[in-house]
Amino acid sequence: MRQYSADLTPPWKKPQSVPEVPAEPGLVVEEPGTGFCGAVIRCEAGTVTLEDRFGKHRVFPLEPRGFLLEGRVVTLVRPSSGPARPTRTASGSVAVPGARARVARAGRIYVEGRHDAELVERVWGDDLRIEGVVVEYLEGVDDLPSIVESFAPGPDARLGVLVDHLVPGTKEWRIAQGVTSEHALVVGHPYIDIWEAVKPASVGIEAWPRVPRGVDWKTGVCEALGWRVAHTGEAWRRILDSVRSYKDLEPQLLGRVEELIDFVTAPS
């Protein structure tokens, strides 16, 4: 006699299996029942604690199919013992363990100075190496027209430029307008110097000081904060060391850098 399965549930109504993902610190997930989205900060027996971008903590049970990871349903599980691998880069992108740097593409991103380049490397370095994007610096926006002319941007060699204090009507704004084209994109942030794009709380100060016009901005900041004026390089190292991820930077800078990366890596 033919044997029939007791399970008469149609295949399309059966729950689909979902991947199990270790709840490693830093993993960003969403709990669909509440809509709470945050990074894992600890995982204990049967529960996981998430922290959202405002610093609020919520504890959730580790239930099957209980979370969304990049829009996909997953089951979070306790991480295995041993050193945890980061699941996110400093920019918030999904980490790719063991990924080799791509051969440098023809496209480039230019920033105004060494400090700008070091900050971009600190947060987006992993992403840029995977994409094969090299970051160079101008040492002043006045050199931009000659650099763009020499670079000769094209469909397979796009040029992205990040400019400090890019405000309509300024000299920097006019220079940027003059070199922008289909294959050359110049964007900017509103800050006088890249230092100011780091959140004050991350540096351990209440706010960036207001520096009188006519006073060198970095010098004025060091004076107001009681830092050694003659050692602006030392001050910058203190600021850079306070940056752990994109969360330590102002949104106005984050958006512009992401825009440049997308621009220079877009298919020709």
Give the oligomer, counting copies of the same chain as homo and different chains as hetero: single chain
Tell me the β content. Answer: 15-25%
How helical, in percent, are the residues?
25-40%
Number of strands: 11
Arithmetic mean of pLDDT: 84
Major sheet size, sense and barrel closure:
4 strands, antiparallel
The run of helices and strands is: EEEEEEEEHEHEHEHHHH
Number of helices: 7
Distance between the termini: 64 Å
Protein name: DUF3097 domain-containing protein
Pfam family, one: DUF3097_N
Region (Disordered): 1-20
Organism: Streptomyces variabilis
Question: Describe it for me?
Answer:
The structure is a single chain. By secondary structure, the chain is an alpha/beta fold. Helices cover about 25% and strands about 20% of the residues. The protein is built from 7 helices and 11 strands. The protein has helices spanning about 115-130, 145-150, 170-180, 200-205, 215-225, 230-240, 250-265, and strands at about 20, 30, 35-45, 45-50, 55-60, 65-70, 70-75, 110, 135, 160-165, 185-190. The strands form 3 sheets. A 4-stranded antiparallel β-sheet has the order 2-3-4-5, with no helix packed on it. A 4-stranded parallel β-sheet has the order 9-8-10-11, sandwiched between helices. The longest helix has 18 residues, at about 115-130. InterPro entries: DUF3097_C, DUF3097_N. This is DUF3097 domain-containing protein. Pfam families: DUF3097_C, DUF3097_N.
